[in-house]
Amino acid sequence: MNAPTSDTTERSERAGRPAATPRGPAPARRRRPADLRTWGAFALLTAPMLIGLGIFKYVAIGWSFLLSLSNAHGTIALGQWVGLDNYRQLLSDDTFRSSLGKILLFTVFIVPVTFVVSLGLALLVNRVRRGRAVVRTAFLIPTAVSYVAASLVWKMCLFNGLPAGIANMVGGWFGMDSVPWLQTTDPPLYWIVLVTLRLWLQVGFYMVLFLAGLQAIPKEIDEAAALDGATGFRKLMRITLPMLRNTSVAVLMLQFIAAFQAFDEFYNLFSSGLSGTATAPVQTPLVYLYNTSMGSQNYGLGSAGAFVLTALIVAVTLIQGRLTGFGKGEE
Amino acid sequence: MSAHRPQLSRRGFLGGSLLFVAGAAVGCSTSPTGGDSSGAKTTLNVWSHAYGEAGTQQALTRYAEAFTKANPDIAVKVTWTPGDYGAKLNSALLTDGAPDVFEIGDFSQAMARRGQLAALDDVYGSAKSDFSQGNLDYMTVDGKLYGVKMIDDVMMLYYRKSALAKAGINPPTTFDELAAAAKALTTKNTKGLFVGNDGLGDTPALAVLSNGGDLVTNGKVVFDSPQAAEAVAALKRLADDQSLLLGFTTDWWDPSALIQNVVPMQWCGLWAMPAIKTALGDDFGVLPWPAFKAGGSPVLRVGGWTACVNAKGKHVDAAKKFVQWLWVDQTDLQKDWSESYGFHVPPRASVAAAADKLAQGAAKETVELAAKYGKHNPNTWDSEVSTPFSAAAKKIVSGQGDAAQLLSDAAKQAQTALDKQHT
């Protein structure tokens, strides 16, 4: 698995060719009749995946787009075309607009915090000499917990409104009165619950990505830097962070998308028996869309919202890609 | 380390893949119901939300088996659905795996108008007059009946007699008295009243109804009337006094907060009465939500569950037969369902009269109160119409704007949604 790059290339060039056939000098271009077998194998091996992707993703996406242009109440059959009415209704709905505002606020806050915390953890864990695997695993384990399970623990155990709740108990040691964490809107204490939950669940995962990036930094560079007298903070800023650029950009992008798609914890923390999430202090766009489609059965409006949200995610990703140069490869 | 792993040969890989696919195919095609459907021509898929009381799931399965015994050609598969029942049902109704028979909590005329529900007039037969006119009206859309009410669920205020007596408080009869009682019963570590974890629950609608207002009348959204705005705005007092229990581990429909002595007053339902009686003995009483002020009216909410038949299902006739058998004909099973687990009021008058457990003590009191002050939600009150109201109420209670203005905006939005139910 740690084979040098040159070795891998050689093997893939050899793959698919009959071993005994003598060949001339390596062809510069790929697509030659002799490579038909390779293409056949490629098609055979990727077809199940591509067909699945086509049917279950692209056809569904296309259908959903058509739905967004039609009046589809309680049905996903097409037919009653209404043009852009759904989009108009959506963008004039205060609830949806405020949900977009809230998710931007959430993103602007949670992305840098997750980024800094996971990078910091990775740097620390990377310096641990003994038992690194144990430490790494300890931080990674929360990633394997489902959002739903974690939300319930946070809601019922840690941040419930009772004096016996763990957060209130700890607060009580310092003379604080018990507060209902999720229901207090002034000041908005529910953000503490949301942010701590997401950090606990996500930091470990991004930490592992950063660790992989850190371990890929060649020892020679570190040593050369050390010889030149770069240590501590200076080494971090001049050597480590620049060498982590590709990892950082990918992590940022993943975090943006994850933040925009926030649903699970918002839904599970705020849903209440009677009114669903109608009275939640903050609704994310996905929660709004879930209520619209699954609650009110307005699939047309729901699809329109899905496309608005997708457009937003694509736009942010593209802008971020342009600013950070993601996908340009190594210099 | 990976370099030393024995390579998987192409043949081995292919063989393994085929085995896996074959195994998956066999696994997926095996019916999870087991031997239930042997010999039956049709299998009905019946959906139920997860009732909280012990024994309910077994009871429903028992009824289904009894039906198959009486109708050997129809097997019944009961799907018990925990979690967000409404959302799961709505999405399942779009698919081939849609249930043939399902229950819904708040009957919605929109579902009938969209053609999702089958008309059930012929299912009632001669028993129709045994059902209350209120329930029949509730399920009538354009002159046809689209459901059979399985149970009436009464929701009311429970209070601990001892706690109120100790504080020298009489059971409240107006909203002012309720708010004052809730405040007086609030101490550093306990709150006075539990209406729901969001601090609202059903109270906005109760407030409107208790002040002579209404939610929807004759297809017009009217929750923006002055008396409605006055009553909803007054709910802010409960929040400002900090006398509401918030963020409890279970929600208002579960009696744990009352039973565990976390609150002395809780809005809950008749279904919870057996559990409350077991835990508290006679140390509890029931009350309607009090009149907003003199001249208003006390109110209890009557909800419940309605059996419906999927109009687009493959076995509409068999499904109708099942609904008729269980929820119209089998009066003894209806009685069992209504009083052996949680308490519910049987919708058939004759069954209700025979339900002896409901004819004594606090249960009897509740049934009488419900007959006098009980209110159904209108059948136009689906989530698209109710959401703007709940959201506005939340803003009003947390002081984010003027009640009349917020309710008037919400009413416009709700009216648009309501008008769409007819298209």
From TrEMBL, chain A:
<keyword id="KW-0813">Transport</keyword>
<keyword id="KW-0762">Sugar transport</keyword>
<keyword id="KW-0472">Membrane</keyword>
<dbReference type="InterPro" id="IPR000515">
    <property type="entry name" value="MetI-like"/>
</dbReference>
<dbReference type="Pfam" id="PF00528">
    <property type="entry name" value="BPD_transp_1"/>
</dbReference>
<feature type="region of interest" description="Disordered">
    <location>
        <begin position="1"/>
        <end position="32"/>
    </location>
</feature>
<feature type="transmembrane region" description="Helical">
    <location>
        <begin position="39"/>
        <end position="61"/>
    </location>
</feature>
<feature type="transmembrane region" description="Helical">
    <location>
        <begin position="103"/>
        <end position="125"/>
    </location>
</feature>
<comment type="similarity">
    <text>Belongs to the binding-protein-dependent transport system permease family.</text>
</comment>
<feature type="compositionally biased region" description="Low complexity">
    <location>
        <begin position="17"/>
        <end position="27"/>
    </location>
</feature>
<protein>
    <submittedName>
        <fullName>Multiple sugar transport system permease protein</fullName>
    </submittedName>
</protein>
<keyword id="KW-1133">Transmembrane helix</keyword>
<feature type="transmembrane region" description="Helical">
    <location>
        <begin position="137"/>
        <end position="154"/>
    </location>
</feature>
<feature type="transmembrane region" description="Helical">
    <location>
        <begin position="299"/>
        <end position="319"/>
    </location>
</feature>
<feature type="domain" description="ABC transmembrane type-1">
    <location>
        <begin position="100"/>
        <end position="320"/>
    </location>
</feature>
<keyword id="KW-1003">Cell membrane</keyword>
<feature type="transmembrane region" description="Helical">
    <location>
        <begin position="243"/>
        <end position="263"/>
    </location>
</feature>
<dbReference type="InterPro" id="IPR035906">
    <property type="entry name" value="MetI-like_sf"/>
</dbReference>
<feature type="transmembrane region" description="Helical">
    <location>
        <begin position="189"/>
        <end position="212"/>
    </location>
</feature>
<dbReference type="InterPro" id="IPR051393">
    <property type="entry name" value="ABC_transporter_permease"/>
</dbReference>
<keyword id="KW-0812">Transmembrane</keyword>
Automatic annotation (TrEMBL), chain B:
<keyword id="KW-0813">Transport</keyword>
<protein>
    <submittedName>
        <fullName>Multiple sugar transport system substrate-binding protein</fullName>
    </submittedName>
</protein>
<keyword id="KW-0762">Sugar transport</keyword>
<dbReference type="InterPro" id="IPR006311">
    <property type="entry name" value="TAT_signal"/>
</dbReference>
<dbReference type="InterPro" id="IPR050490">
    <property type="entry name" value="Bact_solute-bd_prot1"/>
</dbReference>
<dbReference type="InterPro" id="IPR006059">
    <property type="entry name" value="SBP"/>
</dbReference>
<dbReference type="Pfam" id="PF01547">
    <property type="entry name" value="SBP_bac_1"/>
</dbReference>
